[in-house]
Automatic annotation (TrEMBL):
Keyword Signal applies: yes
Keyword presence, Signal: yes
Keywords from the named record: Signal
Organism, scientific name: Idiomarina tyrosinivorans
Signal peptide: 1-23
Protein name: TIGR04219 family outer membrane beta-barrel protein
Amino acid sequence: MNKKQLGLVVALMPAMMVGSAQADTVFGVYFDAKYWQYDTDGNIGSGSDQATFDFDQEQRAILSIALEHPIPLLPNLKIRQSVQKSTGSTTLTSNFTYDGRTYLAGSTIGADLDFSHTDFTLYYEILDNDVVSFDIGVSGQKYDGYATVIDQNGNRNELAFNGVIPTGYLAAQIGIPGTGFNFYGEGYLLSIDDSSLRDIDAGIEYRFIENVAADVSLQVGYRTMKVELDDLDGLYSDISFKGPYIGLKGHF
């Protein structure tokens, strides 16, 4: 999604909601907590010179909360926190310069990454019923992380980066009436110049508690995320995070 497309989404969202009666009829709070096991692949650098690392498998938490309401034209709010840290190593086949320091061919270096981020999403419910729901909105992924290269003596060369990456947001859910099962998916998408971000989550959930006070569902799914950065505070990356998760979702 480029800048023009993102701007068009922002401009059209209020118009799409005029006359819609698909939103929650009362104030609703949604939360979910997921345990994500993911693999990391890719390379980092401080310019065109980048190194590819073999990363260890990680297990981290994903937490989110969403607030929905029946007020026309006012968007709903979702906040998601994703802890995303990875460590790895590689043996260089050629010299590698990172943030002003050169590592020689044949040496083994490590990498310590923190791509943890918080999403702040404003969205509208275009459809919202027991069979089909569809949301559209805009989001900002806030990063305050680092990408560190570690030499054979344990010396750390840390490149810190922070900023907010704007993205488009889409989410959909299809229910199987009378079963408690739903299929769902959501995506955060951006493509601007040489930077891009694709964060897609899809799975199946089973609602095992449903009453007036609360709904609670078990979720099983898969998340894949690809982050291509072109000079975010001097960092260049082509990194992918992907793997399965299990979690709980609640609606109050």
